[in-house]
Design brief:
By secondary structure, this protein is mainly beta. It has 7 helices and 26 strands. The longest helix has 16 residues. The radius of gyration is 24 Å and the shape is globular.
């Protein structure tokens, strides 16, 4: 159904069919105690020497100050051996499902040769899945969010198998590297359920959702995610993602940053190869550091409130199709769907009525119902799927 333009308002009782509560908080003096400092060779073949905690401390690569945690890379010495000294952190805990919220004020800037990432991965890669929440290379200014799985999983319209995965790359320039740092950082949040994996980003200079860092965040109030990877027929999420650890790392060159070195005219002009540049220009990497206020992991506590009726108001121009014919503005948010419907779509949450009329203001009532065979997630997502179908036809949402 095509709309040239409409304004969408929703009068609704709170749609919080998942209630999250805190499980783990990585912050302050306890932050590094909850991670292992990895020292193995970089699996992505980077020119990097990941050091243990004692070595990192002796090199002054990390510190905790006023509750903020900062760590970076060696930027004072010519590199040798395996490569430039850096830190790779892997959480001691593993997670299946939940909400991960990272509040950071700085990440490694957009610097030639760098490949920073904040991500999660399971055992026996790629069989336990990989969720890349923040990742980019060289002078990139846009984050790339990617799922990697074993065979038989397609998300976001792409085959997610192996190292290429299925990426989503928003167009904003304030969600990664130098652009993010100039905005004062922000909050990344990743929600993982049996049916969908969503990733949001909220730049600090645009304001954060009031509950995003609180004890019971509610992602259903945050608006559309920057990236959504919906399971179903294309991918059984529970089969392909499980027992994921949380990882921060800053590597150099390697399969991606080194592989595209010659394609970036600015970087290629600095040195004949990525390794040459990273090895011999330590001063370039002074800004390749992370500063984190907190990393919080929440899990569904299972106490979801009952779903409530949703009322959608559509203001529609003349001579177009729309979702119910003209009706006077209600004094209370409980309009009755207009009969007879042209089409009726039934989902776990109830019915949507559609008809045609030569313009005006229409109303749709979406009445959820309890369904013992459906989880709270499936009810919420069924509702959002129908709203998104309406939203996708137009531009303006209030």
């Amino acid at each position: 159904m095509l709309f040239s333009r409409f304004l969408l308002n929703m009068w609704l009782a709170k749609l919080s069919l998942t209630v999250y509560s805190g499980k783990d908080e990585y912050s302050g003096e306890n932050f590094f105690n909850m991670f292992n400092f990895d020292t193995f060779d970089d699996p992505t073949h980077g020119y990097v020497n990941f050091v243990d905690q004692a070595t990192a401390q002796s090199l002054d690569l990390f510190n905790v100050s006023n509750g903020q945690v900062t760590w970076g890379v060696d930027h004072g010495s010519i590199a040798s051996g395996r490569g430039r000294n850096s830190i790779r952190l892997t959480s001691k805990a593993q997670y299946t499902h939940g909400l991960v919220v990272l509040d950071l004020t700085h990440m490694p800037s957009s610097i030639c040769g760098t490949w920073p990432a904040f991500w999660m991965t399971g055992p026996n890669w790629p069989n336990g899945g990989e969720i890349d929440i923040i990742e980019g290379v060289n002078m990139g200014n846009q984050n790339q969010m990617t799922m990697h799985t074993s065979g038989g999983c397609s998300l976001a319209g792409n085959n997610c198998q192996g190292s290429l995965g299925c990426p989503v790359k928003p167009t904003q320039s304030n969600n990664y590297g130098t652009g993010m740092n100039n905005a004062g950082g922000g909050v990344y949040a990743m929600e993982w359920t049996s049916s969908i994996i969503n990733i949001w980003y909220f730049p600090r200079d645009h304001g954060l959702p009031s509950d995003s860092l609180g004890p019971n965040p509610d992602p259903s109030r945050w608006g559309p995610a920057k990236a959504s990877f919906e399971g179903g027929a294309g991918c059984d999420i529970d089969q392909h993602f499980r027992d994921n650890s949380i990882i921060f790392d800053t590597t150099f060159c390697g399969d991606w940053a080194g592989g595209v070195w010659g394609q970036d005219g600015t970087c290629a002009a600095l040195a004949g190869s990525c390794q040459d540049y990273v090895q011999n220009h330590p001063e370039a990497f002074a800004d390749a550091y992370w500063t984190v206020n907190s990393l919080k992991v929440y899990q569904d506590n299972g106490n979801a409130p009952a779903p409530a009726a949703k009322v959608v108001k559509l203001e529609i121009p003349s001579a177009v199709n729309f979702v119910s014919q003209e009706s006077p503005t209600p004094t209370a948010p409980a309009p009755t769907p207009i009969q007879p419907p042209l089409e009726t779509h039934t989902h776990t949450h109830g019915e949507i009525f559609e008809t045609t009329s030569p313009g005006g203001t229409g109303y749709v009532e979406i009445e959820p119902r309890h369904d013992s065979s459906s989880s709270s997630h499936s009810i919420k997502e069924a509702f959002m799927m129908d709203v998104n179908k309406i939203i996708s036809a137009n531009e303006t949402i209030l």
